[in-house]
Structures are given as structure tokens and as C-alpha cells.
Design brief:
Layout (H helix, E strand, L loop, with lengths): L3 H6 L7 E4 L3 E5 L9 E5 L11 H22 L4 E4 L15 E5 L18 H14 L1
Antiparallel strand pairs: 1-2, 2-3, 3-5, 4-5
The structure holds guanosine-5'-monophosphate (5GP).
Length: about 140
């Protein structure tokens, strides 16, 4: 299903383009959490990370550090978060894979994270490992 990002890739909707190559596009987020908040997306219209092809994944892997370095250089902000949401329950609003690069210049700007860690139980970890490894 076409999303707003497909229209941006097609040039039907404008964006503030940061970077483009054969497989990847990066542009400034329209509602930034901080100056320099950038979205890095594959041109492939996969809705979720686990559906992305290896070629797009590799291209994103090459582009992300390069774009992060440029955002750091431009903003002067070395602290940043990379965020990638999958499905509405996990706060995904646009169903086209995207990575947020979000500078964290101070406490008030950038990503705020609620983090409530548990404790890894040994028996549960072994059971999970067996299932995850079998699925790889
Ligand atoms: P998500 O919650 O899906 O991870 O984030 C989607 C992001 O896309 C949001 O941060 C939102 O501001 C951004 N966004 C949505 N529509 C547009 C648009 O038309 N242009 C740009 N540049 N960003 C958009």
C-alpha cells in the first residue's frame, strides 16, 4: 500500500532531501524532536523491518553512519538516538520502513525514552534462545 513516503520517493510530495542513492533516501522529519531530526528510508516499500530485502538492508546499513556523521557535523550535537518503529503498537505511524536519527542536544529536546527493565531469567533465556536460533 502506498504511503506518504512512497509519494516523497516519487517526487510527488516535496521534502528537505539530505541524501539519496540508488536504494536509500534521507530527508528532514516534518515534525522534528530536535534540529537535524532526519528520516532514513529504503526506496523499497516494505512496511516493516523484517520484510525488507537484504539489498535494501545493506544499503541502509551503509548509509546510516554516513548520514549520522553529517547530522553531527551540521548540528554540532554528538549525542543522538537512532529509532526504528514497527507496527502501531510500537508507535509506527507511517508504514514504510524508516530510521529516525534524532540529535539529543539537551534534556528538553530530542527523544525521551521510558525504560522499565526487567531481569533476564536463565531458564527463560535458554528457551527463547532455542526458539530464536531455530527461526534464523
Ligand atoms: P513513526 O512514528 O512512523 O516512526 O514516524 C513517522 C515520522 O514521519 C514522524 O516523525 C513524522 O513527523 C514523519 N512524517 C510524517 N509525514 C511526513 C511528511 O510528509 N514529510 C516528512 N518530512 N516527514 C513526515
Amino acid at each position: 500500500m502506498a504511503t506518504i513516503f512512497s509519494k516523497i520517493i516519487a517526487g510527488e510530495i516535496p521534502c528537505h532531501k539530505v541524501y539519496e542513492d540508488e536504494r536509500v533516501l534521507a530527508f528532514l522529519d516534518i515534525s522534528p524532536l530536535s534540529p537535524g531530526h532526519t528520516l532514513v528510508i529504503p526506496k523499497e516499500p516494505a512496511p516493516y523491518l523484517e520484510e525488507l530485502s537484504e539489498d535494501s538492508a545493506a544499503a541502509l546499513g551503509r548509509a546510516l553512519p554516513k548520514i549520522a556523521r553529517a547530522v553531527i557535523a551540521a548540528t554540532g550535537c554528538k549525542a543522538y538516538n537512532v529509532l526504528q518503529n514497527n507496527r502501531a503498537e510500537a508507535h509506527q505511524a507511517v508504514f514504510h520502513v524508516h530510521f529516525h536519527i534524532i540529535p539529543k542536544p539537551n534534556e528538553d529536546e530530542g527523544l525521551e525514552i521510558g525504560w522499565s527493565p526487567g531481569r533476564l531469567d536463565d531458564a527463560a533465556a535458554k528457551g527463547l534462545l532455542a526458539k530464536i536460533r531455530a527461526a534464523l
